[in-house]
Amino acid sequence: MATLEESIDTLWERRGELSAGDGEAVAAVDEAIALLDRGEVRVAEVDERSGEVVVHEWLKRAILLTFQLAQMSTIELGPFEFADKLPLKRDYAAHGVRVVPGASARRGAFLDRGVVLMPSYVNIGARVGRDTMVDTWATVGSCAQIGDRVHLSGGVGIGGVLEPPNAVPVVVEDDVLVGSRSMITDGARVGRGSVVGAGTILNPSIPVVDATTGEELSRGVVPPWSVAVGASRRRELPGGEFFLPCVLVLRRLAEGERHDKAALNAVLRTHGVST
Length: 275
Ligand SMILES: CC(C)(COP(=O)(O)OP(=O)(O)OC[C@H]1O[C@@H](n2cnc3c(N)ncnc32)[C@H](O)[C@@H]1OP(=O)(O)O)[C@@H](O)C(=O)NCCC(=O)NCCS
Description:
Blueprint: H1 4-13, H2 23-37, E1 44-46, E2 53-55, H3 57-69, E3 73-77, E4 80-84, E5 98-99, E6 104-105, E7 110-111, E8 116-117, E9 121-122, E10 127-128, E11 133-134, E12 139-140, E13 145-146, E14 151-152, E15 157-158, E16 171-172, E17 177-178, E18 183-184, E19 189-190, E20 195-196, E21 201-202, E22 207-210, E23 216-219, E24 221-222, E25 226-237, E26 240-252
Parallel strand pairs: 5-8, 6-9, 7-10, 8-11, 9-12, 10-13, 11-14, 12-15, 13-16, 14-17, 15-18, 16-19, 17-20, 18-21, 19-24, 20-25, 22-26
Antiparallel strand pairs: 1-2, 3-4, 22-23, 25-26
Helix pairs in contact: 1-2, 1-3, 2-3
The chain binds coenzyme A.
Residues 153, 179-180, 195, 197-199, 227, 229-230, 250, 259, 261 line the site of coenzyme A.
């Protein structure tokens, strides 16, 4: 019997012929979304041996197929009306997740125990780790992988990657603080324990520079245990002198050290749910 992965890949090959009435296709895609929703599979993960991000493309394909197969429905909530194809996540209290009114997450996103969603949004395929705070107006895009004990501050934008289909999800590793209104997109990565200053723009085109040596460390990757801020670098271009963004690693923290501005306030994270 074909594995679920093989079934999804076969459906993807014949996606032009599929319709919402195709019960077998709907069932296979729904099974994949349910696995994502329960956190039993994930779209991307960091390979422990190589340290590289491994993307499970078949799960991204399952998410794209669910958009194709699902039908629009109207949802009414008091005076509010919505029209969408995908259902929302449910049963938060049973899973030890606190969700403040105004927050929503789509089914097929996984929120681990202890997650707090302030009025924010988590899209399908995203994974948010244990005890992570998604603060007000933060958005976690499709398939983004957010670690444990992370703080995504107010207004942070974590990009989603369903298009183009070969895009690598954003990875924010455990114990990171992302400062207010930062934008982390397109497969950018923040290493464990780092603090990203408010208003930082990070994507795979943005150089990450060591402030001590001036060395360009990477494009789009903040190394673990770094304190990094958005900065600008001078560029001479035919049209004149310009200042393009970069990310500056101001200093390194010792492994396991918590930046004093990144201390978590436990009282904001209590759930009343024993885990
Ligand atoms: C990145 C951050 C942790 C740095 O704090 P710090 O280690 O105490 O460093 P300092 O405040 O001494 O700043 C070091 C330098 O970086 C600059 N800087 C600090 N934050 C910056 C930011 N977000 N963007 C650009 N430059 C920044 C400072 O102006 C300073 O420059 P100077 O050396 O010329 O004086 C902090 O500034 C920050 O942005 N925290 C996140 C705040 C936030 O969004 N919290 C959300 C919950 S409310």
